[in-house]
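TA notes, week 10

Several of you asked for a full example with nothing omitted. So below is the full record: structure tokens for the whole chain, then the designed sequence directly under it. When grading your own attempts, check the secondary structure regions first.
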């Protein structure tokens, strides 16, 4: 069975790496918050009321984080990624999906 605790464990490496990400336990579920360093304010706040919603939000945030890293590290800095890079990010998400399947069967 997937629980919030298992989801947080699945994404521990990403949560530790992304300095813009904060996750807070609230009365209504977990709040996933992304900080915008340039504007010094929250750019995205989503309340995840189920473990499945928390997983989906963190997977989406992870993919966006990888996209940010790819754009940041490009020498041309056009602010876009290619289809090949997008496919690479999708492959990078696969281990998280596999860990979810494992957690759901336990």
């Amino acid at each position: 069975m997937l629980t919030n605790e298992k989801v947080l464990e699945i994404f521990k490496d990403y949560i530790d790496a992304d300095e813009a990400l904060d996750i807070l336990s609230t009365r209504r579920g977990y709040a996933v918050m992304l900080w915008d360093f340039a504007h010094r304010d929250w750019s995205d706040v989503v309340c995840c009321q189920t473990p499945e919603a928390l997983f989906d939000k963190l997977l989406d945030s992870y993919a966006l984080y990888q996209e940010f890293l790819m754009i940041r590290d490009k020498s041309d800095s056009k602010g876009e990624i290619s289809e090949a890079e997008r496919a690479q990010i999708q492959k990078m998400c696969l281990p998280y999906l596999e860990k979810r399947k494992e957690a759901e069967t336990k």
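The chain has one domain: 4-105. Use that as a sanity check on your answer.
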